Amino acid sequence: AGFDWGFKLQFMEGSDARFIHSLGLFDRTANEILQPDLVEAYLSLHFPLIMDGGLDLKLGKFVTLEGAETIDPRSNFFYSHSYIFNFGIPFNHTGALAAWHATSHLDLYAGLTRGVNTSIDDNNDSLAFDGGVGVNLLDGKLTVLASTHIGPETVNDNHDNRYLNDITITAKPAKNFTSITDLNYIYDEAADASGYGMAQDFIYTINDVFSIGARGEIGATQTDSTSHLSRKMMMRSTLCAAARSL
Questions:
Q1: CATH code at 87?
Q2: Sequence-distant (≥ 6) Cβ neighbours of residue 86 within 8 angstroms
């Protein structure tokens, strides 16, 4: 394929919007339960470079690479979200992200953003790195996405980085069975705090209408200082049955 371009605009209105705002966008609606949000607004460019898959470039506001779950509920099996989605990954970025489709099995991602959940305003006027590696094997039956976001996130601090790292493994060993493993590790230099999480989803499709799923997850945080060491551990399991119309 040759050069191509497009764009995406996704807007939402509702109670969930208050949890995913980016800095500087719809800040004045913070006291309302039902709020608007511009989830994504970006220009997409495709360049036929180097390999047959070419290179795709996003410019604007887009959702994060990280994690097994998405803001758009149509991409999620479970109604509830994991600890990792709520505490371990960003929701969105504003900047530029390139995806090089090196082979049919390998994708490389790299870009610069204004930070975690940051758009019009930036609390420290510093850029961050956003990138990852995606692998597609066994005719799509096994996919792995390792992603990272590195940069300063603390207010008025442009040198202490926050490291947000995630690995999502999706396996389909059988036609009706899907396993999704999400591994997460974060570290913040300014707070000298770290955290990790693991979520394991199993989804079984009974037929074209009904599916069942189970999720087990664990998360932990640790804060070190000269005076004390603080640790917190969280565990949770979730069961779900889903039906969809034909």
A1: 2.40.160
A2: none
Q: Closest by alpha carbon to 67, among 169, 219, 155, 194?
A: 169
Per residue in 57-75, pLDDT (tens digit) is: 999 999 999 999 999 999 9
The pTM for the full model equals 0.92
| Digit-coded pLDDT (tens) for 157-200 | 899 999 999 999 999 999 999 999 999 999 999 999 999 999 99
Number of structural domains the chain divides into: 1
Torsion of CA 59, 60, 66, 67, to 10 degrees: -130
Contact call for residues 129 and 149 (beta carbons, < 8 A): yes
Q: Please give the residue range of the domain that contains residue 150.
A: 4-243
User: If you count DSSP H runs as helices and E runs as strands, how many of each does the chain have, helices first?
Assistant: 1, 12
Rounded to the nearest 5 percent, the helix, strand and coil shares of the chain are 10, 60, 35
